[in-house]
Design a protein that fits this description.
A hairpin with a 2-residue loop joins strand 1 (57-64) and strand 2 (67-74). This protein has helices at residues 2-20, 25-34, 41-53, 76-98, and strands spanning 57-64, 67-74. It is an alpha+beta fold. The chain is built from four helices and two strands; from the N terminus they run H-H-H-E-E-H. The two termini are 22 Å apart. It binds zinc ion (ZN).
Length: 100
């Protein structure tokens, strides 16, 4: 159960960061670890692929320091989902955290 819930938080995180700048797998794993989410490539890459397939992210390969990297950017559909989640998150926060 904890995994299911964390995965939803992780997806929101990914959309949030992809809205600011292009994100890539290793960078996201480091960022998520910083927030206390231990996510490996076996979970992260399928999650990115799912978000891309759903039209929430676009992917473009770029060569950085002689290495090919897949960078993901948010799409208008992804931004709409993120804004929808922001409103829900705010509402949830108010009830679950502030009204404790
Ligand atoms: Zn973050």
């Amino acid at each position: 159960m904890i995994r299911d819930l964390e995965l939803a938080f992780i997806k929101i995180h990914i959309l949030h960061h992809a809205d600011k700048e292009g994100v890539f797998g290793i960078g996201l794993m480091a960022e998520l670890a910083r927030h206390g989410y231990g996510i490996g490539p076996g979970t992260l890459y399928p999650t990115l692929a799912k978000l891309e397939k759903g039209g929430f992210l676009t992917c473009a390969a770029r060569t950085v320091e002689h290495k090919q990297r897949k960078y993901y950017h948010i799409t208008p559909k992804g931004r709409a989902l993120l804004n929808n989640m922001r409103a829900k998150l705010k509402e949830l926060y108010q009830e679950v955290i502030e009204e404790q």
